[in-house]
Amino acid sequence: MTTRVEQVMGLPISLDLRDEGDFAEVVDDVFAWFRDVDARFSPFKEDSEVSRYDRGELTAAELSDDLLEVLELCAYYEQLSGGAFRARLPGRGLDPCAVVKGWAVQRAADMLKAEGAATFCLNAGGDVVTAGEPEPGRPWRVGVRHPEQPLAVCAVLESRNGAIATSAAYERGSHILDGRSGTPATGLMSVTVVAGDLVTADALATAAFAMGAEGITWAADRPDCEILIVDDSRRVHRTAGLALAS
Protein backbone atom coordinates (compact mmCIF):
# COMPACT_ATOMS: atom_id res chain seq x y z
CA MET A 1 0.00 0.00 0.00
CA THR A 2 1.18 3.50 -0.88
CA THR A 3 -0.31 6.89 -0.14
CA ARG A 4 1.01 10.24 -1.29
CA VAL A 5 -0.27 13.82 -1.43
CA GLU A 6 1.37 16.79 -3.12
CA GLN A 7 0.28 20.31 -3.99
CA VAL A 8 0.85 20.44 -7.75
CA MET A 9 -0.81 22.30 -10.62
CA GLY A 10 -2.41 24.61 -8.07
CA LEU A 11 -4.36 21.88 -6.28
CA PRO A 12 -3.86 18.90 -3.96
CA ILE A 13 -3.25 15.64 -5.79
CA SER A 14 -3.50 12.43 -3.77
CA LEU A 15 -2.81 8.81 -4.58
CA ASP A 16 -4.18 5.86 -2.60
CA LEU A 17 -2.56 2.74 -4.04
CA ARG A 18 -3.68 -0.56 -2.49
CA ASP A 19 -1.54 -3.04 -4.44
CA GLU A 20 1.24 -4.89 -2.67
CA GLY A 21 4.73 -4.50 -4.10
CA ASP A 22 7.30 -1.83 -4.79
CA PHE A 23 5.70 1.00 -6.74
CA ALA A 24 7.98 3.75 -5.40
CA GLU A 25 9.60 4.49 -8.75
CA VAL A 26 6.39 4.83 -10.75
CA VAL A 27 4.79 6.92 -7.98
CA ASP A 28 7.80 9.26 -8.16
CA ASP A 29 7.40 9.34 -11.93
CA VAL A 30 3.69 10.19 -11.63
CA PHE A 31 4.28 13.21 -9.41
CA ALA A 32 7.26 14.30 -11.51
CA TRP A 33 4.88 14.14 -14.49
CA PHE A 34 2.43 16.47 -12.74
CA ARG A 35 5.21 18.96 -12.02
CA ASP A 36 6.32 18.78 -15.65
CA VAL A 37 2.76 19.36 -16.88
CA ASP A 38 2.45 22.39 -14.62
CA ALA A 39 5.73 23.83 -15.94
CA ARG A 40 4.85 23.27 -19.59
CA PHE A 41 1.11 23.90 -19.78
CA SER A 42 0.29 26.57 -17.20
CA PRO A 43 -0.90 29.81 -18.81
CA PHE A 44 0.16 31.54 -15.59
CA LYS A 45 3.87 30.77 -16.08
CA GLU A 46 5.60 33.11 -18.52
CA ASP A 47 8.10 30.50 -19.67
CA SER A 48 5.62 27.65 -20.19
CA GLU A 49 5.15 26.19 -23.65
CA VAL A 50 1.54 27.40 -23.63
CA SER A 51 2.55 30.99 -22.83
CA ARG A 52 5.37 31.00 -25.38
CA TYR A 53 3.04 29.69 -28.08
CA ASP A 54 0.37 32.22 -27.13
CA ARG A 55 2.91 35.06 -27.51
CA GLY A 56 3.95 33.79 -30.93
CA GLU A 57 7.41 32.67 -29.80
CA LEU A 58 6.68 29.12 -30.98
CA THR A 59 5.03 28.07 -34.23
CA ALA A 60 2.58 25.19 -34.44
CA ALA A 61 5.31 23.13 -36.09
CA GLU A 62 7.52 23.63 -33.03
CA LEU A 63 5.01 22.45 -30.45
CA SER A 64 5.43 19.24 -28.48
CA ASP A 65 3.24 16.27 -29.34
CA ASP A 66 1.63 16.64 -25.90
CA LEU A 67 0.51 20.22 -26.50
CA LEU A 68 -0.72 19.37 -29.98
CA GLU A 69 -2.83 16.60 -28.44
CA VAL A 70 -4.24 18.99 -25.83
CA LEU A 71 -5.09 21.62 -28.45
CA GLU A 72 -6.82 18.98 -30.58
CA LEU A 73 -8.92 17.98 -27.56
CA CYS A 74 -9.81 21.63 -26.92
CA ALA A 75 -10.92 22.02 -30.54
CA TYR A 76 -12.99 18.83 -30.33
CA TYR A 77 -14.88 19.90 -27.21
CA GLU A 78 -15.37 23.42 -28.56
CA GLN A 79 -17.06 21.94 -31.62
CA LEU A 80 -19.04 19.42 -29.57
CA SER A 81 -20.39 22.11 -27.23
CA GLY A 82 -21.21 24.62 -29.96
CA GLY A 83 -18.53 26.99 -28.69
CA ALA A 84 -19.56 27.01 -25.01
CA PHE A 85 -16.29 25.27 -24.18
CA ARG A 86 -13.43 27.38 -25.47
CA ALA A 87 -9.71 27.48 -24.68
CA ARG A 88 -9.23 30.92 -26.17
CA LEU A 89 -11.68 33.77 -25.66
CA PRO A 90 -11.51 37.19 -27.35
CA GLY A 91 -9.32 39.49 -25.30
CA ARG A 92 -7.87 36.62 -23.30
CA GLY A 93 -4.85 34.41 -23.75
CA LEU A 94 -4.78 30.72 -24.52
CA ASP A 95 -5.93 28.73 -21.48
CA PRO A 96 -6.26 24.95 -22.04
CA CYS A 97 -6.53 24.18 -18.30
CA ALA A 98 -10.04 22.75 -18.63
CA VAL A 99 -8.56 19.92 -20.71
CA VAL A 100 -5.07 19.72 -19.22
CA LYS A 101 -6.03 18.55 -15.73
CA GLY A 102 -8.15 15.60 -16.82
CA TRP A 103 -5.68 14.70 -19.55
CA ALA A 104 -2.70 14.81 -17.18
CA VAL A 105 -4.38 12.79 -14.43
CA GLN A 106 -5.63 10.16 -16.87
CA ARG A 107 -2.11 9.89 -18.32
CA ALA A 108 -0.78 9.39 -14.78
CA ALA A 109 -3.35 6.66 -14.12
CA ASP A 110 -2.27 4.96 -17.33
CA MET A 111 1.36 5.14 -16.16
CA LEU A 112 0.40 3.36 -12.95
CA LYS A 113 -1.51 0.64 -14.80
CA ALA A 114 1.38 0.10 -17.21
CA GLU A 115 3.59 -0.75 -14.22
CA GLY A 116 1.11 -3.26 -12.83
CA ALA A 117 -0.95 -1.14 -10.44
CA ALA A 118 -4.51 -2.45 -10.45
CA THR A 119 -6.15 -0.98 -7.34
CA PHE A 120 -5.87 2.74 -6.75
CA CYS A 121 -7.66 6.05 -6.46
CA LEU A 122 -5.99 9.12 -7.94
CA ASN A 123 -7.68 12.35 -6.85
CA ALA A 124 -6.83 15.78 -8.25
CA GLY A 125 -8.85 18.39 -6.38
CA GLY A 126 -12.02 16.30 -6.54
CA ASP A 127 -11.55 14.91 -10.06
CA VAL A 128 -10.92 11.20 -9.64
CA VAL A 129 -9.69 8.14 -11.52
CA THR A 130 -10.25 4.76 -9.88
CA ALA A 131 -9.01 1.26 -10.64
CA GLY A 132 -10.15 -2.00 -9.10
CA GLU A 133 -11.77 -2.43 -5.70
CA PRO A 134 -10.13 -1.54 -2.39
CA GLU A 135 -11.82 -4.61 -0.87
CA PRO A 136 -13.43 -7.58 -2.65
CA GLY A 137 -16.93 -6.63 -3.75
CA ARG A 138 -16.55 -3.08 -2.46
CA PRO A 139 -16.06 -0.25 -4.97
CA TRP A 140 -14.32 3.01 -4.29
CA ARG A 141 -16.62 5.60 -2.72
CA VAL A 142 -16.20 9.12 -4.09
CA GLY A 143 -17.84 12.08 -2.40
CA VAL A 144 -19.20 14.95 -4.51
CA ARG A 145 -18.79 18.22 -2.68
CA HIS A 146 -21.95 20.15 -1.88
CA PRO A 147 -22.04 23.30 -4.04
CA GLU A 148 -22.97 25.55 -1.10
CA GLN A 149 -21.57 23.80 1.97
CA PRO A 150 -17.77 23.39 1.78
CA LEU A 151 -17.60 20.71 4.48
CA ALA A 152 -20.52 18.62 3.17
CA VAL A 153 -21.12 16.29 0.25
CA CYS A 154 -24.27 16.22 -1.84
CA ALA A 155 -23.76 12.62 -2.95
CA VAL A 156 -21.42 9.66 -2.63
CA LEU A 157 -20.79 7.72 -5.82
CA GLU A 158 -19.45 4.21 -6.40
CA SER A 159 -16.59 3.84 -8.86
CA ARG A 160 -14.71 0.91 -10.34
CA ASN A 161 -12.28 1.46 -13.19
CA GLY A 162 -13.67 4.84 -14.18
CA ALA A 163 -13.48 8.57 -13.70
CA ILE A 164 -15.53 11.26 -11.97
CA ALA A 165 -15.18 15.01 -12.52
CA THR A 166 -17.07 17.96 -11.07
CA SER A 167 -17.23 21.54 -12.32
CA ALA A 168 -18.63 24.19 -10.00
CA ALA A 169 -18.02 27.76 -8.93
CA TYR A 170 -17.02 26.98 -5.34
CA GLU A 171 -13.25 26.74 -5.77
CA ARG A 172 -12.50 29.85 -7.82
CA GLY A 173 -15.78 31.76 -7.97
CA SER A 174 -17.35 32.33 -11.39
CA HIS A 175 -14.25 31.26 -13.31
CA ILE A 176 -16.05 29.14 -15.92
CA LEU A 177 -17.05 31.30 -18.86
CA ASP A 178 -19.55 30.60 -21.60
CA GLY A 179 -17.34 30.70 -24.69
CA ARG A 180 -20.25 31.86 -26.82
CA SER A 181 -20.61 35.13 -24.91
CA GLY A 182 -17.37 35.46 -22.94
CA THR A 183 -19.38 36.03 -19.76
CA PRO A 184 -19.53 33.91 -16.58
CA ALA A 185 -21.69 30.82 -16.98
CA THR A 186 -25.05 30.91 -15.19
CA GLY A 187 -27.87 28.47 -14.56
CA LEU A 188 -26.03 25.64 -12.84
CA MET A 189 -24.37 25.26 -9.45
CA SER A 190 -22.55 21.99 -9.94
CA VAL A 191 -22.00 19.47 -12.74
CA THR A 192 -20.61 15.99 -12.08
CA VAL A 193 -19.88 13.61 -14.94
CA VAL A 194 -18.97 9.93 -14.62
CA ALA A 195 -17.16 8.44 -17.61
CA GLY A 196 -14.66 5.80 -18.55
CA ASP A 197 -11.75 8.24 -18.51
CA LEU A 198 -11.02 11.59 -16.90
CA VAL A 199 -10.35 13.43 -20.16
CA THR A 200 -13.98 12.86 -21.13
CA ALA A 201 -15.45 13.40 -17.67
CA ASP A 202 -13.56 16.63 -16.96
CA ALA A 203 -14.12 18.26 -20.36
CA LEU A 204 -17.81 17.34 -20.46
CA ALA A 205 -18.37 18.66 -16.93
CA THR A 206 -16.76 21.99 -17.81
CA ALA A 207 -18.61 22.26 -21.12
CA ALA A 208 -21.98 21.45 -19.56
CA PHE A 209 -21.43 24.00 -16.80
CA ALA A 210 -20.50 26.62 -19.41
CA MET A 211 -23.69 25.89 -21.37
CA GLY A 212 -25.92 26.61 -18.37
CA ALA A 213 -29.39 25.04 -18.17
CA GLU A 214 -29.17 23.61 -21.67
CA GLY A 215 -26.10 21.69 -20.54
CA ILE A 216 -28.27 19.35 -18.45
CA THR A 217 -29.86 17.58 -21.41
CA TRP A 218 -26.71 17.94 -23.50
CA ALA A 219 -24.57 16.16 -20.90
CA ALA A 220 -27.20 13.50 -20.24
CA ASP A 221 -27.23 12.67 -23.94
CA ARG A 222 -23.47 11.98 -24.10
CA PRO A 223 -22.82 8.28 -24.70
CA ASP A 224 -21.34 6.12 -21.95
CA CYS A 225 -21.65 8.89 -19.34
CA GLU A 226 -23.74 9.47 -16.23
CA ILE A 227 -24.45 12.87 -14.68
CA LEU A 228 -25.36 14.52 -11.40
CA ILE A 229 -26.25 18.20 -11.84
CA VAL A 230 -27.51 20.80 -9.37
CA ASP A 231 -29.13 23.79 -11.05
CA ASP A 232 -29.33 27.30 -9.61
CA SER A 233 -32.81 26.56 -8.26
CA ARG A 234 -31.20 23.74 -6.25
CA ARG A 235 -32.95 21.03 -8.24
CA VAL A 236 -30.96 17.84 -8.69
CA HIS A 237 -30.80 16.13 -12.09
CA ARG A 238 -29.24 12.70 -12.53
CA THR A 239 -29.25 9.92 -15.05
CA ALA A 240 -30.74 6.54 -14.18
CA GLY A 241 -27.44 4.71 -14.41
CA LEU A 242 -25.63 6.83 -11.85
CA ALA A 243 -24.13 4.54 -9.20
CA LEU A 244 -25.00 6.08 -5.84
CA ALA A 245 -23.34 4.47 -2.84
CA SER A 246 -25.75 2.81 -0.44
In DSSP terms (H or I, runs of 4 or more residues), the helix count works out at 6
Query: How much β-strand is present in the residues?
Result: 25-35%
| Whole-number mean pLDDT | 94
Helix proportion range: 25-40%
**From the helix content, strand content and strand pairing, which structural class follows?**
alpha+beta
Compressed to H and E, one letter per element, the order equals EEHHHHEEEEEEEEHHEE
* Strand order in the largest sheet: 1-2-3-4-7-10-11-12
Distance between the termini: 26 Å
Strand count, sense and barrel status of the largest sheet are: 8 strands, antiparallel
Enzyme class: transferase
EC number: 2.7.1.180
Catalytic activity: L-threonyl-[protein] + FAD = FMN-L-threonyl-[protein] + AMP + H(+)
InterPro entries: ApbE, ApbE-like_sf
Characterise the protein shown here.
With 246 residues, the protein is of the alpha+beta class. 32% of the residues lie in helices and 26% in strands. The chain has six helices and twelve strands. The protein has helices at 24-41, 49-54, 65-80, 97-114, 198-211, 214-220, and strands at 2-8, 11-17, 120-124, 127-131, 140-145, 153-159, 163-168, 177-178, 183-184, 188-195, 226-231, 236-238. The strands form three sheets. An eight-stranded antiparallel β-sheet has the order 1-2-3-4-7-10-11-12. Strand 5 and strand 6 form a beta hairpin. The longest helix is centred in the first third of the chain and has 18 residues, at 24-41. The chain is globular. The two termini are 26 Å apart. The model has no long low-confidence stretch (mean pLDDT 94).
